[in-house]
């Protein structure tokens, strides 16, 4: 599937033509093509922030990853869980990486803050 997120609610004539061509190409190779409306600005800001922690260097190692899973086994306020693990300067980058990678979850449609609930995703 290919999803195209527009910056505005309505597409211009040129954008509609381009979307039609891209849709045909996607269909030809067996993909689905969706044109979606604008992304919610709060969600966009949160995902953009987390993207800064996508590099594996922010993983923190297996011990820290396990500590994050344990601390956030149930929905827990972000700061409470981080402080329970250790130094926030070490733990926060690993937490943000885990949120980016989908090992931890939070409501990214709401503004991120220290009291936001964070929880571990179920193992697949």
Number of strands: 5
Mean pLDDT: 93
Number of domains: 2
Spatial order of the strands in the main sheet? 3-5-4
What general outline do the C-alpha atoms trace?
elongated
Beta fraction of the residues? 5-15%
Oligomerization category of the chains in this entry: single chain
Order of helices and strands: EHEHHEHHEE
Q: What is the number of helices?
A: 5
- Radius of gyration using CA atoms only: 19 Å
The residue ranges in which pLDDT falls below 50 over 5 or more consecutive positions are: none
The major beta sheet can be summarized as: 3 strands, antiparallel
SSE-based structural type:
alpha+beta
N-to-C span: 22 Å
Helix content: 40-55%
Structural features, described:
The protein is an alpha+beta fold and 124 residues long. The protein folds into 2 domains: 35 residues, no CATH class; 80 residues, no CATH class. It is 48% helix and 13% strand. A 3-stranded antiparallel β-sheet has the order 3-5-4. A two-stranded parallel sheet has the order 1-2. Helix 1 links the parallel strand 1 and strand 2. Helix 3 crosses helix 4 and helix 4 crosses helix 5. The chain is elongated, with a radius of gyration of 19 Å. The two termini are 22 Å apart. The mean pLDDT is 93.
